[in-house]
Specification:
The complex is a heterodimer of chains A (138) and B (313). Chain A has one domain (4-137). Chain A has six helices and no strands. Chain A has helices at residues 4-12, 20-41, 55-64, 74-89, 96-119, 131-137. The longest helix of chain A has 24 residues, at 96-119. With 313 residues, chain B is of the alpha/beta class. Chain B folds into two domains: 12-133, Glutathione S-transferase Yfyf (Class Pi), Chain A, domain 2, CATH 1.20.1050.140; 152-309, 3-Layer(aba) Sandwich (Rossmann fold). Chain B is 45% helix and 9% strand. Chain B is built from twelve helices and eight strands. Chain B has helices spanning 26-39, 57-60, 62-79, 90-105, 107-120, 135-142, 144-151, 193-200, 224-240, 251-268, 279-286, 303-309; strands spanning 12-15, 42-45, 84-86, 131-133, 160-164, 204-205, 245-248, 275-278. Chain B has a four-stranded parallel β-sheet with strand order 2-1-3-4, with helices on both faces. Classes of the chains: A mainly alpha (138), B alpha/beta (313). The interface between A and B is large, with 36 and 41 residues.
């Protein structure tokens, strides 16, 4: 697993020259690494399982266990998966470059949220203020 | 639990502005009331309302927060006889919905609410007596998209809008039982009510994938740099989508976006273009209401300039 600083540098790279499908695959792998860092930091072993075809979504679910406020990045993860699907299904689509750029911004948001939460545990608690109830269902 | 009823009349609702709309979110209150007046809808302020518990009280005791929200619902339903309360603030909306859920599903919460209500000398809120709705629900249920379209006097033509819903409008999903019910209902994964309303008002809605992403709102003061980074990414993404405006429906989101846009520029030299406007301000403009009556001059971002430049004022 690469260091988070290295992951950040790769996410920030505006690699306009890369083919959309390759860049989308690279972004997805970087996002998985971000979530793997989160799971590891909490003493877990990052899963290799897939959920709805994505390790990213399985890692997100794993990352939520015992930490319902981690759900604050659920939709971001799902949007990343959605954009990956769009780009990989039709890499030559006229919108593919834009979609992969959006995927990059989603990936950066996930990175910022997760690294922020590693520093400030309460991040995401605001929208998850029903923590006691969520803890039962997560 | 109260469900959406097509028979229910949403044209007159109890109105719970909450603390933020009397402070930093004043323009949201002003524009909501102006829109109501223009549309012939009646907002009846909840008498002697109190804080919903916001972010702070849950850290003391979550059940106390449930009680505070239940008191607002008790006044609206038991004392004022309403069956619908409209809360434009995401925080208030969220907390009232959560209180409804907690009282219905957690015996301990119900017990605390009953005990504190007795001590405070008011009726205990009875689950299911009041439906809490957001300002977006209110417009959708009273007018619908067609109703909005037919009342537009000055369409928002050419204005590219990214809609930002923030976190508390859709999370956690289980406190919003009326959402995710298929066509016509709101989606928690990809909310669209604001998109629908503003599209009906003539705006060009851009596909904005970060519409519910975290802005670090609760950490705006304690961890400002973190919040600034999250907000900058939200602003840059909106910019990349081609948006002129980020439409908001929450005073916390709105002030967070505005404040960190300024902070990003002054502290980090990062300039971003989109202006922030409450969806009620945009809707009000489309209905022909003047910018001052909508409080647009109170916005921190360059909203007023943009509105004038586009001939909407």
């Amino acid at each position: 697993m690469r260091a988070l600083s290295e992951v950040e540098a790769l996410l920030a790279l505006d690699d306009g020259a890369a083919a959309p499908r390759a860049r989308a695959a690279s972004l997805l792998a970087l996002c998985e690494e971000v979530l793997a860092h989160w799971v590891s930091a909490r003493g877990g072993v990052p899963t290799d399982a897939r959920r709805e075809g994505f390790r990213l979504l399985a890692l997100h679910r794993q990352g939520c266990r015992g930490e319902p406020s981690f759900n604050a990045c659920r939709e971001t993860c799902r949007e990343i998966a959605y954009h990956y699907n769009l780009v990989s299904a039709e890499p030559d689509h006229p919108q593919a470059v834009r979609q992969v750029r959006m995927m990059g911004m989603l990936a950066m948001h996930l990175y910022l949220f997760v690294t922020g939460k590693l520093e400030v545990a309460a991040l995401g608690d605001f929208c998850c203020s029903s923590r006691p109830l969520r803890a039962q269902t997560c | 639990m109260t469900t959406v009823s097509p028979q229910k009349d949403y044209r007159e609702v109890a109105y719970y502005p909450g603390c933020a709309l009397e402070g930093t979110g004043h323009a949201y209150d002003r524009s909501t009331r102006a829109v109501a007046e223009a549309l012939g809808l009646r907002l009846v302020d909840v008498r002697n309302w109190n804080c919903c518990g916001a972010m702070e009280v849950k850290n003391v005791d979550p059940k106390l927060q449930t009680y505070l929200s239940s008191r607002v619902m008790s006044i609206a339903s038991e004392e004022m006889g309403h069956d619908v309360v409209m809360a434009p603030c995401n925080g208030c909306y969220h907390n009232l919905k959560k209180a409804e859920h907690d009282i219905a599903n957690d015996a301990g919460s119900a017990e605390v609410v009953a005990e504190l209500s007795r001590k405070a000398g008011h009726a205990t809120y009875q689950v299911g007596k009041l439906e809490t709705i957001h300002a977006l629900d209110w417009i959708k249920r009273t007018l619908g998209d067609e109703g909005v379209r037919s009342r537009v006097k000055r369409p928002l033509t050419g204005l590219k809008v990214a809609n930002y819903y923030g976190c508390m409008y859709t999370r956690p999903r289980h406190i919003f039982p009326e959402k995710d019910k298929g066509p016509g209902s709101e989606s928690t994964a990809r909310p669209h009510f604001m998109d629908d309303i503003l599209a009906a008002a003539g705006a060009e809605i851009v596909d904005y994938p970060l519409k519910t992403a975290c802005c670090g709102g609760a950490h705006t003061l304690s961890d400002s740099d973190l919040s600034t980074k999250l907000v900058v990414n939200l602003l840059r993404a909106a910019e990349a989508c081609g948006a002129d405006v980020i439409a908001t429906e929450c005073p916390t989101c709105h002030s967070g976006l505005e404040m960190h846009q300024v902070r990003a520029e002054t502290r980090f030299g990062i300039t971003t273009r989109p202006a922030m406007l409450y969806f009620t301000q945009l809707l009000g403009l489309a209905l022909g209401i003047g910018p001052k009556a909508l409080g647009i001059h109170e916005n921190v971002s360059s909203a007023l300039e943009l509105v004038r430049e586009r001939g909407l004022a």
